[in-house]
Amino acid sequence: MACEGCANAVKRVLSQLGNDVSSVHTDVTKNIVTVTSTLPERTILETLQKTSKPVKAIH
């Protein structure tokens, strides 16, 4: 994520998952997105890949 526009794109694509995502926090300076969800990690990662940004899980 290079800017707030990118962060908003991430939030927008995750919003498509509906109520299964309870929170999304973006940190543009660290290029980190924190997602709280009842969905499997794989679903979140696949959804984030739609932004064409590099994606990996950090535990």
From TrEMBL:
Biological processes per GO annotation: copper ion transport
TM spans (from-to): none
A Pfam family the protein falls into: HMA
GO cellular component terms, semicolon-separated: cytosol
Role noted for this protein: Binds and deliver cytosolic copper to the copper ATPase proteins. May be important in cellular antioxidant defense.
Keywords (A to Z) from UniProt: Chaperone, Copper, Copper transport, Ion transport, Metal-binding, Transport
PANTHER family listed in its UniProt record: COPPER TRANSPORT PROTEIN ATOX1
Subunit-structure text: Homodimer. Interacts with ATP7B. Interacts with ATP7A. Interacts (via dimer form) with SLC31A1 (via C-terminal domain); this interaction improves ATOX1 stability and controls intracellular Cu(I) levels.
Family: Belongs to the ATX1 family.
Protein name: Copper transport protein ATOX1
Annotated HMA domain residues: 1-56
InterPro entries from the UniProt entry: Copper_transport_ATOX1-like (IPR051881), HMA_dom (IPR006121), HMA_dom_sf (IPR036163)
GO molecular function, one term: copper chaperone activity
Gene3D superfamilies (UniProt xref): 3.30.70.100
